[in-house]
Fold this protein.
Amino acid sequence: MDESRHSRSELPEDVPRLFAEAWNRKDAGALARLFAEDADFVNVVGHWWRNRADIERAHDYGLKTFFGDSRLSARRVEVRRLGENAAITHVRWKRTGQRGKTGEVLEDRTTVMVFVAERRDGDWIVVAAHNTDVIPGKETYAAKDGDLGAVDYRN
């Protein structure tokens, strides 16, 4: 197998572990190699990257700046197989160490990320990913006067 093409994922369950390992090494290249050349990636604020090169570029920037001191760890991983050659993997992440604009360490964040992967040449490669922040006690977002905030309509 051509190791320069992507990181080795023998099972769909390997994807979150390899993603976190690359993140924690600040290795955007290794992170991006988990993805197909034409993969889609939607981040927590809706930026949508449409190929591996853009996924790598965006993560390289973040991992060198505001995520430079961060650590990512999987708290829960669930895989749903869609036949023999496709799978959806949900992972609940904990992210620590993000820096604010003035360099202060921000509070920990929890997100849920979905990876859609297919088996190619015996390995699993991600064709799409979507990451979403978890905001305890909130139901949805509300936009008003140009600001977007999490709200709970029950209160």
Q: What stands out?
A: The domain at 14-135 is CATH 3.10.450.50 (Nuclear Transport Factor 2; Chain: A,). Strands lie at 35-42, 48-49, 71-81, 86-96, 109-120, 123-133, 140-144, 147-151.
